[in-house]
Amino acid sequence: MAAFSPQFLEAQKATLMEERERFQSEIRAIDLELIRLGQSQSDEGSGVGNHMADEGSDAQEQENDLAVRANVEVMLAEVQHALTKFDDGTYGICEDTGQPINTARLEALPYARYTVQAQEKRETAGTYRPLPSIR
Q: On the CB side of 13, how many CA atoms lie within 13 Å of its CA?
């Protein structure tokens, strides 16, 4: 592992575990909302007597929830990946260069995989799509 202090690593791991719980909670809340929307649509008799705008609104809301859920799943996977890096001793090490990632970057983005320079190089080359921001 890079020359990070034990206190820094402990704080980062705690932050990642909190993020994991937050993302898992968001997914559970979205799933409950999707179930509610699905039940609402089936309870209303599949459109009989409903205004078309109401049906469209529900469908749009469902589509938005699914898009947000997909983004949250991506973020959760990144957090999970970062937590596994603690186990194998590579947390805070750039996956491209093998160099330590700046502590300020890790504090801002605890699941960062790359140094700023490696990230910029990947984005310029089009080999890495930036993660969605849901903060």
A: 15
